[in-house]
Amino acid sequence: MRSRLPRAIAVLTILLGSNVAFASGKTSGSRPQLLVGVSRLETTEQAREWLTYYYLHPRPDLLASALDLLSKDGALQSSSPIVAFTSRLCALEPKRLDGWVDHVLRSSEDEQFFLASALWAADTAEGRALLERLGRSGSPRLQQFVQNMLGDTPMSVLTAGIESPASLDALWASFFATGEDAYVKRVITALPLMKTKGDTARLLIGGAAHWSLTSNAIQHPRVMAICESELMTAGGDVKTILSEVVERAKEGRH
C-alpha cells in the first residue's frame, strides 16, 4: 500500500508550490486571475493557481478536471502531497464524494488509486464508505489495494514525524487546502533541525522548512501573519531562525 504514495517529484514541484516547489515572486494573495470564469482546469498554470490558492477561493467543483489534468501529466503516480491536499477536500466536502467517485470510475485507473488514497487519508465515515464502494467497483488490483488500506489507520500529517522534505510538502498541501494555522505551525517546529550536527538528512529538512516558510510568507500574507504571531511567543533556536524567516520574507515582499 505504501508503495503507491512515494515522495514528491519534479512534476509536483511545478504544480504545488511547497517547500520543494515554487517560491516564485511576489503576490498579494488576491483572486487567482487564471481561474476567473473557468469551469474546468485545462492547463498546468490553472492547476497551479487552483492548488496554491484554494484556501482563499475554494473551488471544489474543479477537482475532477484537476485529476484528469494531473493524470495526463503523470503527477498522480508520485502524489503524496496532492493526496494530502485532496484528502482535506474529501473531509471538507463530504456531499461531493459520490460525484468524485463516479468521475474516477469513468476515468483512468491511476485516478481511481489516487482518490482511494485520498479517501483513506481523509479518515472520515463518509470517505470510508465511498472507499469501500470504489473498491467494489474497481479492478481486482484496486480491490486489493482498498482492502489493504481498510485494514490500516492513516496518521495525521500533524502528528506524523517530519522525516523528509516530503513531510513538509504534505503539511503545505494541507494548508493550501484549508488555510489552517496548525499546518504552518508544524512546519515551524522543524526549523531547529537546521542546527543539527552530523546528520545531513535532518539538516536538509530544517533548511527546507526555512526555505518554504520564507517563500510562502512572501507569497501568502496569511503565512506571514502566522509566522509573526508565532514569533511573539517563540524561544531558543525557533525564535532565532523564525526571526530570520520573517525578516527575509519582508525583504522579499518589497
Tell me about this structure.
This protein is mainly α. The protein folds into 2 domains: 2-150, no CATH class; 180-252, no CATH class. Helices cover 62% and strands 0% of the residues. It has helices at 10-15, 44-52, 63-72, 80-92, 97-105, 109-122, 125-137, 140-150, 165-178, 181-188, 200-219, 221-233, 236-252. The longest helix is centred in the C-terminal third of the chain and has 20 residues, at 200-219. The protein is globular and about 55 Å long.
SSE sequence, one letter per element: HHHHHHHHHHHHH
Helix content: 55-70%
Bin the strand percentage.
Answer: under 5%
Rg value: 18 Å
Tally of DSSP helical segments: 13
Unreliable stretches (pLDDT < 50, length at least 5) are 1-29
The structural class is mainly alpha
- Separation, N- and C-terminal Cα atoms: 46 Å
Number of domain units: 2
Major sheet size, sense and barrel closure? none
Overall strand count:
0
Average per-residue pLDDT, rounded, comes to: 86
Helix-strand layout with pairing:
Layout: H1 10-15, H2 44-52, H3 63-72, H4 80-92, H5 97-105, H6 109-122, H7 125-137, H8 140-150, H9 165-178, H10 181-188, H11 200-219, H12 221-233, H13 236-252
A few lines on this structure:
It is built from 13 helices and no strands. It is mainly α and 254 residues long.
